[in-house]
Amino acid sequence: MTLAKVFERVTHGADVPVEFAAYDGSRAGRHGSDIRVEIRSPYAISYLVRSPGLLGLARAYVSGHIEVRGDMYTTLSTLSQTLEKISVGDRLRVLAGVLDDPLLRAAAATRLDPPSVEAPKGGKLRRHSKRRDAKAIHHHYDVSNRFYEWVLGPSMAYTCAVYPELDSSLEEAQFTKHELVARKLGLEPGMRLLDVGCGWGGMVMHAAREHRVKALGVTLSKQQAEWAQKAIAEQGLSDLAEVRYMDYRDVVESGFDAVSSIGLTEHIGQANVPGYFAFLNGKLRPGGRMLNHCITRPDNLQPSIRPDGFINRYVFPDGELEGPGYLVTEMNDNGFEIRHEENIREHYAMTLRDWCRNLDEHWDEAVSEVGPEIARVWRVYMAGCRLGFDRNMIQLHQVLGVKLPESNDAGMPLRSAWGM
């Protein structure tokens, strides 16, 4: 059986807008399509047979046994709609066809190691211990600051932006996000801000530059901290802004006027969520505000972690997503009065669109900088996440809380003061 015949069996001969080409010279699908999937080696079958579904496809792509020509988001969107229609019987018939071919049968029987960029297992370290969290953060963030500059753009903000208009640029949207957080927190000159999981210091520098706030950021990525401290010095903000290479749980200062957590909650683990909110509550003065900004699942009906999933293995080791209701409840039950909540998942789909475009525009440079496997991981990961936000498989929630003083005066305006 040619690989083209396999493709035709999978799609039931439908006119799928994808051109399929294989190393054996066979062709299928729509000739001349903007999307072209190439099977470069029979060993792609080994990954697909041993790890059915997205993980096998991802391994075959990351290792270079499968190539995708054209927009990755469009490819994933188109193929996912086709693959969702495949029945168990279809899969068995395809597998039978593969086993009938000696070359494909031999390839399927060959056990290949996962691509080398797959995250190492946590070993005996307890999940979300300080040492294991540091290893997980190092795997994802200490790739290359230059690579992140190409993907994220000048803002170096690796979190959901907020687009004031449909045609706003990524930089405008990231500025708007930081300003939205600042307004929700009610930042004013002279205040003290703690930004946990601060990344490359975008929120820290925004608070210092735009609101004259004394801001402290902490990150478990050494490369992020070094980049941020250099940027702070270059912008003349060293008297107000600081980024430290440290675990947020090791911050000793307290009495902050505000706390921002933009993209950290996904890393801490569901079991640690109550303690996380309680700890940050303890860092605030009475009347202080906290803004929690993080990716969530739409509900709490599915497991918070998928250990064998592509993202957990390649992108965010030990990452866990909770439903928004759970986060609001735990934030409320650990000392915060909830004052505002919103879901901005559409904005994250737009953010990922722009990051994907940036990577495509710098593709050759990115491959030269970090290697083809890491570049491929990022290409499929960001396109897949964009699809997830578009289809409401994942969401992005901002939750604002206040640590009430004894007077119970929250110090909040009668209506929202941010207007964004």
From TrEMBL:
Gene3D superfamilies: Vaccinia Virus protein VP39. Signal peptide: none annotated. The keyword Ribonucleoprotein does not apply. One of its GO terms (biological process) is methylation. GO terms for molecular function: methyltransferase activity. Keywords: Lipid metabolism, Methyltransferase, S-adenosyl-L-methionine, Transferase. CDD domains: AdoMet_MTases (cd02440). The keyword Transferase applies. InterPro entries: CFA/CMAS, CMAS, SAM-dependent_MTases_sf. The active site is at C385. Belongs to the CFA/CMAS family. PANTHER family: CYCLOPROPANE-FATTY-ACYL-PHOSPHOLIPID SYNTHASE. This is Cyclopropane-fatty-acyl-phospholipid synthase. It comes from Actinocorallia herbida. The lineage of its organism: Bacteria, Bacillati, Actinomycetota, Actinomycetes, Streptosporangiales.
